[in-house]
Amino acid sequence: MTDEFDAMYETFRALLDAFPPSESVKRLEQFGISPDIVQRIRERHEQQTIRIRELEEPHAVVLGNRETWYTGPQAKDKCWPAVVDLLRKDGWPEKPSITHLDDASTRVVSLLNHPKERSFSTRGLVVGHVQSGKTTNFTSVMAKAADRGYKLFIVLAGIHNGLRRQTQARLVHQLVEPNPSMWSQLTGVDRDFAPQENPASYFGRSNKTHVLCVVKKNATVLRTLARWLEKASDYLADCPALIIDDEADQATVATKSINPLILSIMRSLPRSAYVGYTASPFANLLIDPSAEDLYPRDFVVNLPKPETHFGTEVLFGRYALDGEDPDQVDDGYDMIRSVPEGDVACVRPLSRAQVEGFEPVITDTLRRAVEYFWLVTAARRVRGTGNPHSTMLIHTSVNTTVHNSFKKPLERMRDRMIRSLGSEAHLARLRELWEQETTRVPAEDFGERKVEFEDLLAHLPSAVDHCRVVMDNSSSEDRLDYDNGPVVAIAVGGNTLSRGLTLEGLSVSYFVRAVSAYDTLLQMGRWFGFRNGYADLPRIWMTDELAEWFRHLATVETEMRRDIDVYMSEDETPLTFAVRLRTHPALRVTAAAKMRNAVTAASSYGGKRVQTHYFHTDADWLGKNIDAARALVVAAHSTASRIDERPQEGRYIFRDVPHDVVSDFLTTYKFHERSTENTSELLVSYIRKRVATAGSLRRWNIAIVGTPRGRPDNDFVFAPGVSVGRTVRARLDVAGPADFADIKTLMSRRDAAVDLTGDSAKWTESDLREQRRTQQPDTGLLVLYPIDKVSAPASTKTRRAPLNAEEHVIGVGLVFPEPSTTDSTVESYVSADLSKVSVEDENYEFLDGEDM
Questions:
Q1: Which of 36, 83, 555, 606 measures 20 to 30 Å from 816, CA to CA?
Q2: 21 — pLDDT class (breaks 50, 70, 90)
Q3: What is d(CA 268, CA 250) in angstroms, rounded to the nearest whole number?
């Protein structure tokens, strides 16, 4: 009976995958199956589903929420075990590294179609992190797909020869060499695709090998491949193919030559799965879903950030998202060093007219960065662990003439450094640099031991002497080569260093390249990745504006990934939800051509907390905000239905103040221009629309949150009889304009509950939301904070510095009630346009009893 039931379950498994539970029950009953057997089938399917979902794997959004034919490796597999053996030899630990890779790659393969289906054309997207092992992940996916019967593997390896060669070499090493009799190659390390004679020798039924083809995203090469596949069409019906698009946002999206050729290749393959891999998926998520294109209509997968990986948030910190406790969001490591704006013209021509004949100046910041690089190289030799290579990146311009102009100045600096190592004054300056940097980022915080200056000194002469200055760009013949022994190099380059290629042992970066889009900016950050053995030592020199852009980008990334995960839990699909991408006033999300099908996505303030964390520090700007706050308190005092006075706690609450009082304040209060989401216009517009359309936000509670009053030298007077002690909010210790401060966090969760009753100290975020829905469902909260103009940090061990404003600062926090069904919105996001997509028109393939 058990065997019969198992057979029955397998027969109807595809039906259970394709339809919602209620519909699948009806269809099973139509086959005359008794209700108790139907219940048993459903229970078995639910158990199988739970088992699959409980794998430690990244979340995914799946078309139709279908489960999978692939649940992991089997004992008979050959390709995946070979990959694992090589990783173990390279020192990968079983847990967590290999286990996590196994789970993540299994999840991706599970979203592909079974290779024995009659026909399929899958489109998916895998979102990784810059320099986080995406190549290893897709190599593992290819190995597992090969073990299950996929035959043709086409890898689109970026647009540069260097990345194509690097990718081919890795795939040959990890896939072909361990099982040479199982693979045929259409390309080689030193050759891109060229037409092969006799397609039958590769795809005929007599050839059981897997076929590997690694090509650049170059129109000529892809056109040649597409034509050859067309000629081989008689042999491709039984050839399940997996197309991996590495750096899938580059050249693939919205290009007149590359994009149609990729689609042409897919049309020649009756059984094909296209999977894009990228760390900057912004363009891919904005493709028109209704067009015959490469929008990831079948699945989107977030790869988890590996342990010890240096990503955007780790280095630059980020801002709190809605619902997060700002105090729990990391500021990032203290590894970013400021390049003054005045230095930029010394290392990068500011116009095309200045390119010819440009000669860079070794500024103080550039000299300091290079000297620190040599110290790091020597210190790593003392430790004798981790990556044997040591690289510095200098990236100031995309122009190859500018790159080449750095060679002689850097070589002269290297020669002077060698001659100066006998100078006591020079050594004293190097010692001071080393002590400053190792004090700011203690080695102990990363499980390392500090290298003393005396210990590294013995290795410093050889570190400098062995250092090469390499111009790595599209016109240079001198390229980085890590295959012939340990390398010490200062790499000056542009686009050839900006994607895919790994700068081995990268420890110092000097980056002032002007960029205009999220994806370009993110991919330029070659400093992301793994820094085993020297995680305390990396440093990045860049302008303050760029550092702020990367902090914003870290916030965009986190929010994007959270969107994918949240929508998955709500049973959405890539065709029923569009991931929102937060915008920025100075940056495009991606190139204009890639955004032509994007639409503005609405972001409601409903249920959100808004707080000011950017401030000017000049007295005139701050004085106007003080005047606005005092006028608000006077108006609230005269219009409130009740006033809760708690001066012993440093708190006042004016209840049921009319909305126009709040709107008048927001109109006069000055928000910093970097607060792109929190502007007077957006906030006032939202309040007025919600009052008009939803009937809520007519009344507001106005709170003042400070410290207990009683010290005349510390009290801040808002109005006669209304004063509190000033609070302290130190600024982030990052260099910037003279009149700019970023305090990062203003409002605590307790402050957001100041007008509610109950023990808010014990409330979670969900508790707070529930209490506000219950107690103040239609009332907004505005909180004023008088911030001391000095605001010295309580500890010297944090990335904080005194605020040092010319006048006391007024911070503002707003808490909006949950939205109603008629809630108004504000616009600060873009997304794909799903308005023309009809999910009901999708055709689902059934296996009709085929052997699975």
A1: 555
A2: low
A3: 23
Lowest mean pLDDT among 204-213, 465-474, 731-740: 731-740
Whether residue 842 is predicted with pLDDT greater than 50 in this model: the reply is no
As a whole number of angstroms, the distance between CA 160 and CA 815 comes to 49
Neighbours of 820 (CB within 10 A): 15
Contact 287, 253 (CB under 8 A): yes
Who's near 620: CB < 8 A, 6+ residues apart? none
Which whole number is the average pLDDT over 1-23? 67
Structure tokens, 246: 């590495």
Has residue 391 got a pLDDT over 90?
yes
The single-letter code of the amino acid at 183 is W
Residue appearing with tokens 């102009």: 405
Tell me: the pLDDT tens digits for 426-458?
999 999 999 999 999 999 999 999 999 999 999
Beta bridge partners of 276: 125, 245
* DSSP, res 136: H
166: nearest Cα among 143, 136, 211: 136
Q: Mean pLDDT score of the chain, rounded to an integer? A: 87
In this structure, are residues 407 and 471 in contact, taking their beta carbons and an 8 Å threshold? yes
pLDDT confidence band for 840 (50 / 70 / 90) = very low
Strands 152-157, 241-246: pairing is parallel
Closest Cα partner for 239 from 154, 171, 143, 172?
Answer: 154
d(CA 95, CA 658): 59
Pair 402, 345: CB distance under 8 Å? no
Q: Which two tokens stand for residue 590?
A: 């991606």
How crowded is the C-beta side of 568, counted as CA atoms within 13 Å?
18
Which contiguous run of DSSP H or E holds residue 693?
helix 680-693
Q: Note the residue count of the chain.
A: 852
Q: Comparing C-alpha atoms, which of 229, 204, 219 is closest to residue 260?
A: 219
Largest CA-CA distance found in the chain, in angstroms, rounded: 94
* Helix, strand, coil fractions of the chain, as percent rounded to 5: 40, 20, 40
For 416, left (φ over 0), alpha (ψ -120 to 50), or beta?
alpha
Query: What is the spatial distance between Cα 392 and Cα 374, in angstroms, rounded to a whole number?
Result: 9
Between CA 166 and CA 136 the distance in angstroms is 12
Rounded alpha-carbon distances, angstroms, from residue 417 to 5, 224, 372: 79, 52, 12
Structure confidence at residue 843 (pLDDT): 29
Q: Which two tokens stand for residue 68?
A: 């999978």
Tokens 């259970």 label which residue? 16
Per the CB < 8 A criterion, the answer to whether 246 and 156 are in contact is yes
What pLDDT score was predicted for residue 821?
A: 58
Residue 71: half-sphere exposure toward Cβ, Cα within 13 Å: 10
The closest alpha carbon to 506, from 369, 413, 406, belongs to: 369
- Give the residue among 491, 561, 468, 472 at the shortest CA–CA distance from 279: 561
Query: b or e along 586-598 (b: 16 or more beta carbons within 10 Å of the residue's beta carbon)?
Result: ebbbbbeebbebb
Contact 470, 491 (CB under 8 A): yes
The answer to whether residues 726 and 808 touch, using CB atoms and an 8 Å cutoff, is yes
Hunting for tokens 């992991």 — which residue is that? Answer: 72
Closest to 112 (Cα-Cα) out of 55, 63, 44: 63
Evaluate whether 242 touches 142 at the Cβ level (below 8 Å). Answer: yes
Distance CA 135, CA 820 (A): 45
Q: Which amino acid is at 602?
A: A
What distance in Å separates the CA atoms of residue 107 and residue 98, rounded to the nearest whole number?
A: 14
Task: Return the amino acid letter for 503.
Answer: L
Predicted local distance difference test score (pLDDT) of residue 19: 63
